[in-house]
């Protein structure tokens, strides 16, 4: 049995409150009618940008994948399949040739051609657009469009991650000429088209009736921004919203399980909760401090307390069972005595009040993250670390961590950790923002060399060995604490059906879901 976790009384009240409120609503509130043909999907925050070249937060990636099309698409087992590109070949180690589908049009009726693909890639590589994704395409030397349906990519060096970086969640083709302000009024070629957006309120999409894909059954989607978890639960129970995905605490989901108007679907997921350190900060520069913090965290107990065991402990960025995931890297599992010993070795001894070190952790206003931070505050206090918590609206939070203005923060990897190139994106010394997500400034020449070698070879067994060695070093250095992989949990009304959740927790199910009449 997991060891007990004590949640502070004030936060415990927040977690338990929906049990009372939703049951009261169930007995006393009628369900209001919804807009005919519109699915109302609740999300926690506004997308950072609806330009697929720029938006890297979870909401941006998920909504963009409905508006835009990628060249290739990953299936449920993370194998890459044709999408806009019907086929491709690699005639030489440094050359890829993609053959596009004919007849594909953007939502404004303009044909989608190889020139649009070339423009999208050029804007990510020529410095004209400030994008955290630009680091994914540093290997590209040039892109040409010899005819309207052929794209030729020439590389500076072999890059085995290129195809993955051209897949859904990472890439979307924009019209030629799209500039920095494109995200305000995006035009794609996907199953749904952009209608409007209002910051911190909603994003509206309508079905693309001229899509080259099978026409979606749902006429329109309103992504309604509701930052508060209790309010999201109440909106679902009142019937004023249709669905949420991974946006309620486990206690909230549990409180909704007997509502006759709601359905709860669960499936294994790849979304990873993690804590990142600013390794350049004087208080965190010594890896023994980071190791001690990892040893002070009781993952299993937190999973039981916060997620009702609907998550799996993570010792790696890559999902469990991934071909490149290591299993024998150094582990800093729950061991408070070892944590204290590591802090002693780092020269951090308890003061008169028992405090060895004071740190600040930044989080978004997400309900579960705030509960997690409060538990971490308790667990670190037991080894003499005083953890101050700072919670911010997501845009402010994301801006701070992108600038390196933090000591510690809690966040999730959504989709990106399904490809081993995540190690380069998150830890290569060349991936400091805006060229990647190495927000903590981690730098290790040996890791850089291993990741460069893995990107250059086409030998899968050699790539695996490079990644295993890199993982071993990262596990020792602890620039990040990998916490757990969350199950995908979706709560929805019964008028929404034919739902098939994918491991990434994307909104792809909306392409095939059906909607009953009001």
Give the helix/strand layout.
Elements: H1 9-28, E1 38-43, H2 58-67, E2 72-74, E3 80-82, E4 85-92, E5 95-100, H3 114-125, E6 140-147, E7 150-155, E8 192-198, E9 202-207, E10 220-225, H4 229-238, E11 243-245, H5 250-255, E12 262-277, H6 287-295, H7 299-307, E13 311-313, H8 336-345, E14 357-364, H9 367-381, E15 385-392, H10 394-402, E16 408-413, H11 422-427, H12 445-456, H13 460-477, E17 480-493, E18 496-497, E19 514-515
Parallel strand pairs: 1-10, 1-11, 14-15, 14-16
Antiparallel strand pairs: 2-3, 4-5, 5-7, 6-7, 8-9, 9-10, 11-17, 12-16, 12-17, 13-17, 18-19
Q: What characteristics describe this protein?
A:
518 residues, alpha+beta, eleven-stranded mixed beta sheet, four-stranded antiparallel beta sheet
**Class from helix and strand fractions:** alpha+beta
Rg value: 23 Å
Percent in strands: 15-25%
Average pLDDT figure:
90
Number of strands: 19
Q: What's the total helix number?
A: 13
Describe what you observe in this structure.
This protein is α+β, with helices and mostly antiparallel strands and 518 residues long. It has helices at 9-28, 58-67, 114-125, 229-238, 250-255, 287-295, 299-307, 336-345, 367-381, 394-402, 422-427, 445-456, 460-477, and strands at 38-43, 72-74, 80-82, 85-92, 95-100, 140-147, 150-155, 192-198, 202-207, 220-225, 243-245, 262-277, 311-313, 357-364, 385-392, 408-413, 480-493, 496-497, 514-515. Strands 1, 8, 9, 10, 11, 12, 13, 14, 15, 16 and 17 form an eleven-stranded mixed β-sheet that branches. It has a four-stranded antiparallel β-sheet with strand order 4-5-7-6, covered by helices on one side. The protein is globular and about 70 Å long.
